[in-house]
Design goal:
Layout: H1 17-25, E1 27-31, E2 42-43, E3 46-47, H2 55-58, H3 63-67, H4 80-90, E4 94-100, H5 126-136, E5 140-146, H6 162-185, E6 191-195, H7 200-203, H8 206-219, E7 224-225, E8 270-274, H9 287-290, H10 296-308, E9 311-317, H11 327-343, E10 350-352, E11 362-367, E12 371-372, E13 375-376, E14 379-384, E15 392-396, E16 401-408, E17 414-415, E18 418-421, E19 424-428, E20 437-445
Parallel strand pairs: 1-4, 1-9, 4-5, 5-6, 6-7, 8-9
Antiparallel strand pairs: 2-3, 10-11, 11-14, 12-13, 14-20, 15-19, 16-17, 16-20, 18-19
Helix pairs in contact: 4-5, 4-11, 6-8, 10-11
Bound molecules: 4-nitrophenyl 6-deoxy-alpha-L-galactopyranoside.
Length: 462
C-alpha cells in the first residue's frame, strides 16, 4: 500500500439513497449544448470531420471570433420542456447537462466569467430553465463541468514555470468558485460529471480534485461525482496508485463498453457514455456526422449490455443552435421509448444476474432487489439481441437454480422450454422483430444434489 493523501476514500461502494437511486436509474440522457451548436461543425464554409464541440480548436478559431457566437445564441427554438419530455418518453431517468464545455462558455450567468448566457441576447439563465424542466418531468439532474478551459487566460496544459503555477492556481480558484456557485444556485442537483481533467496541469493537482469533491459533497450532501475528476498525489487518474476507484463511479467507458463476459467491472459502479452519431457530442450538421448514426436496436443492445455488467448508460443528445432538438434524435428517442415502455422493467432497477454466464445470444439482468446471497432468485430477464441461426437459445442454469417458466415480457405469454439436463435448458428463439425481445425466466431454488452428472471423467465438472 502506497500512503496517499489524495487517493480513494476508505468507504468503498456507496449504499446511501442517492447512490442507490442513481444505480437503479441505469439510463440517463447526456446533453451537450453550447455555442458550438451554432456553427455545428462548419467554420467559414469548411466542414471539419471531428466532434463539433472541438470546432474552436480544430478550425483554429480565435477567442474573439468564437466569443462573437454569443450574439447568435438567441434561443429561438429553445424548449427545455420538450427536451425533458423527450428524455422521459425515452426511458431516461436522469440528465447530465454541460454547464461549461472546453470553450469556456457558461450556460448559467456566472459571476466569475463574462463569457456566459448573460452576454447573449436573451440574458436568461438557460441552465436553470433546463434543470427545472427536467425536474418537472421527474428526472434527476447532474451537471457536466469541463475543467479544461480554452477561454480562460490562466488555464495551463502543464506547469513549466513559477508563472504557470501562479496562473494555474488562480485558474483552480476560479473553477472552485464556479463549482461552489453551481452548487449554491442549483442545490437540487444529484451529481457532478467532471471532464477535461487529463492534462499534466490537473494531474499535478490531485489535491484540488480531492478537495473539490469533498467541498461539493459538503454543500450538497449525497452528491455523486464521477471518477474522471480525480487524480491522486502521484497523478494516477480514475483509480489511485493502489488501484482503488476514486470518486463514486468509474466513468472511463466512452463510446465503448466492457466486453459482455467481463464481469470484473461490476465490482464497482460505472457509467458509460455514448454518442448517437459516430463521434460528435455537440450538434454536427453534416453527412459525416450522420454516418454511423445509431439505431434504436443498437441503443437498446448497448443498454442491455451495460446493465448486465452493472453499469449505467448516459446517451448523448446534441440540441441544435436554436435550442431545438434535431427531429432525427427525437425520433430515435421515441423508438427507444416505445421499446422501454414495454420492456424497461428488464433494465430499470436491474443489475447483473450473478452466476448467469454470458450466453452469447443476449444479456441477462435481474431486479436489483431480487439478488439474494445465494445468487438470483425469482426472475432473470433474458434480453435477446442476437438470434442464433439454429433457432435455439441455450440457457446454462447456475447450480442450485431451476427454471419454472419462461414468459415473453411484452405480453406475459408462456413459452415452451426443454430441459436437457438439470443445468441446461433450450428455448425456441423468438422471431426476428427488429428490436430485442425480452424473456422473463422464472426461477426457483433447485436441489443441488438432484440430477445425474455427466459420467465422463474427462469432462471438467463444476
Ligand atoms: C470528452 C470531451 O472532450 C468531449 O467533448 C465530450 O464532452 C466527452 C463526453 O468527453 O472527450 C473524451 C474524453 C475521454 C476520452 C475520450 C473523449 N477517453 O477517455 O477515451
Amino acid at each position: 500500500m502506497i500512503a496517499l493523501r489524495y487517493g480513494a476514500g476508505p468507504a468503498g461502494r456507496r449504499q446511501d439513497p442517492a447512490m442507490r437511486a442513481f444505480r437503479a436509474d441505469r439510463f440517463g440522457q447526456f446533453v451537450h449544448w453550447g455555442l458550438y451548436a451554432i456553427p455545428a461543425g462548419t467554420w467559414q464554409g469548411r466542414t471539419i470531420e471531428f466532434a463539433a464541440e472541438f470546432l474552436m480548436q480544430s478550425a483554429n478559431v480565435s477567442r474573439e471570433d468564437w466569443a462573437a457566437l454569443a450574439g447568435d445564441f438567441t434561443l429561438e427554438g429553445f424548449d427545455p420542456a420538450a427536451w425533458a419530455r423527450t428524455a422521459k418518453r425515452m426511458g431516461a431517468r436522469y440528465v447530465t447537462v454541460t454547464t461549461k464545455h472546453h470553450d469556456g462558455f457558461c450556460l448559467w450567468p456566472s459571476a466569475y466569467s463574462d463569457f456566459t448566457v448573460a452576454a447573449t441576447p436573451s440574458g436568461r439563465d438557460v441552465l436553470g430553465e433546463i434543470l427545472d424542466a427536467y425536474r418537472a418531468e421527474g428526472l434527476a439532474t447532474h451537471l457536466y463541468y469541463s475543467v479544461l478551459d480554452w477561454h480562460h487566460p490562466d488555464w495551463r496544459y502543464a506547469i513549466e514555470s513559477d508563472d504557470d503555477r501562479v496562473a494555474f492556481d488562480r485558474y483552480l480558484d476560479f473553477a472552485t468558485n464556479q463549482l461552489l456557485e453551481l452548487a449554491e444556485r442549483y442545490p437540487q442537483v444529484r451529481g457532478f460529471w467532471f471532464d477535461g481533467t487529463w492534462d499534466e496541469s490537473v494531474k499535478a493537482n490531485g489535491r484540488w480534485t480531492h478537495d473539490i469533491e469533498r467541498l461539493l459533497k459538503e454543500r450538497i450532501p449525497g452528491a455523486i461525482v464521477n471518477s474522471r475528476l480525480r487524480a491522486d498525489d502521484r497523478g494516477a487518474r480514475h483509480f489511485d496508485s493502489n488501484g482503488a476507484l476514486m470518486g463514486d463511479y468509474e466513468s472511463g467507458y466512452e463510446r465503448r463498453l466492457p466486453a459482455p463476459w467481463d464481469r470484473s467491472v461490476s465490482v464497482h459502479d460505472w457509467e458509460a457514455c455514448a454518442t448517437l452519431t459516430q463521434a460528435s457530442w455537440g450538434f454536427h450538421d453534416s453527412a459525416w456526422a450522420e454516418r454511423g448514426r445509431k439505431t434504436a436496436a443498437q441503443i437498446v443492445e448497448q443498454l442491455a449490455q451495460t446493465v448486465s455488467l452493472g453499469g449505467n448508460l448516459l446517451l448523448n443528445f446534441g440540441p441544435r443552435g436554436d435550442g431545438s432538438l434535431a427531429p432525427v434524435e427525437v425520433a430515435l428517442a421515441d423508438e427507444v421509448g416505445a421499446w422501454m415502455a414495454v420492456n424497461g422493467e428488464a433494465l430499470h432497477d436491474s443489475g447483473p444476474a450473478e452466476e448467469w454466464d454470458y450466453p452469447g445470444w443476449g444479456f441477462y439482468t435481474t431486479p436489483l432487489t431480487a439478488t439474494t446471497p445465494e445468487g438470483s432468485a425469482g426472475v432473470v430477464h433474458a434480453i435477446v439481441t442476437r438470434i442464433p441461426v439454429s433457432g435455439i437459445l441455450t440457457v446454462a442454469l447456475p447450480s442450485g437454480v431451476a427454471l419454472r417458466a419462461v414468459r415473453a415480457l411484452a405480453d406475459g405469454s408462456a413459452l415452451p422450454f426443454t430441459p436437457l439436463d438439470p443445468h441446461t435448458v433450450q428455448i425456441p428463439a423468438p422471431a426476428a422483430a427488429g428490436m430485442p425481445t425480452v424473456l422473463a425466466l422464472e426461477t426457483a431454488p433447485a436441489d443441488r444434489e438432484s440430477g445425474l452428472r455427466e459420467p465422463n471423467p474427462d469432462v471438467a465438472l463444476v
